[in-house]
Design goal:
The protein has 230 residues and is mainly beta. It has one domain: Alpha-Beta Plaits (2-Layer Sandwich). 7% of the residues lie in helices and 49% in strands. It contains 2 helices and 13 strands, in the order ββαββββαβββββββ. It has helices spanning 33-44, 110-114; strands spanning 2-10, 12-13, 55-60, 63-77, 80-96, 99-104, 129-138, 140-147, 151-153, 162-171, 180-189, 197-208, 213-216. Strands 3-6-1-7 form a 4-stranded antiparallel β-sheet. It has a 3-stranded antiparallel β-sheet with strand order 2-5-4, with no helix packed on it. Strands 8, 12 and 13 form a 3-stranded mixed β-sheet that branches. The longest helix has 12 residues, at 33-44. The two termini are 25 Å apart.
Length: 230
């Protein structure tokens, strides 16, 4: 199967851990699928459709740091979300020199990355990224191989890794209201290793014969619904 491979590089990236809203804002070791969906939608200039493509990704970075950041706080006022007048200050973790590689089964999306409609970012609005590679590659469905840092649906007994509950996408169609998290699932974060980790799973596709590197092609939302938007 042909896959569209797009590489994003940046100076910084931040992927907030859900439900941690006090103290230091720690960052996930890899982006969530909802972050990847948002990045693709930004380049498309519209919400990605749930059944529009399968998605795989791998992620790496060279280091991390802590940033002292001024933030704007929100509050509910008469059932409407509004901005508070007072600013807040928080410590926020970030990644240095990140690289995000995404693989899409829908190769017709290629033009969206050649001429992105929006400014792609890896987390916060200031984590501006740039596209350094766009290519079509051949892949082959396999039962196992070596996988690099990404998210795999829990459970998978062939790898370890941290467990975390994340959503696949957000519904954000009502202005002035909080967005709605959809398709909450448990995932395993594939740990960082030099050579990758051996894995056995469904939906694996080999992208490099020499290294036996594979990616996990994920169905967003776990269902096919041509009328649903992410």
């Amino acid at each position: 199967m042909k896959l569209l491979h797009v590489r994003f590089n940046a100076w910084t990236a931040t992927y907030k851990v859900p439900f941690i809203n006090s103290g230091t804002m720690v960052s996930l070791p890899v982006p969530s699928y909802s972050s990847v969906v948002g990045l693709i939608s930004c380049c498309l200039g519209r919400p990605l459709l749930i059944d529009e493509t399968l998605i795989a990704f791998t992620y790496s970075y060279n280091g991390s740091g802590i940033d002292l950041e001024t933030t704007k706080r929100l509050e509910m006022n008469e059932n409407v979300l509004k901005e508070k007048k007072e600013d807040s200050v928080t410590n926020r973790a970030f990644h240095v020199n990140p690289q995000l590689d995404i693989y899409l089964s829908n190769i017709a999306l290629e033009d969206a990355f050649k001429k992105p409609r929006g400014v792609p970012t890896l987390g916060r609005s200031q984590d501006i990224s740039w596209i350094t590679k766009i290519e079509l590659i051949e892949s082959e469905k396999v039962e196992g191989g070596k996988i690099r840092p990404t998210l795999i649906p829990f459970p998978n007994e062939t790898i370890g890794g941290r467990l975390i509950r994340l959503c696949d996408y957000y519904i954000n169609e009502s202005l002035s209201y909080t967005r709605e998290a959809s398709n909450m699932s448990m995932y395993q974060i594939v740990p960082v290793t030099k050579e990758g980790i051996n894995i056995v799973s469904d939906s694996l596709y080999r992208i490099n014969d020499k290294t036996n590197e594979v990616v996990y092609m994920h169905q967003i939302g776990g269902r096919n619904d041509v009328n649903s938007k992410i």
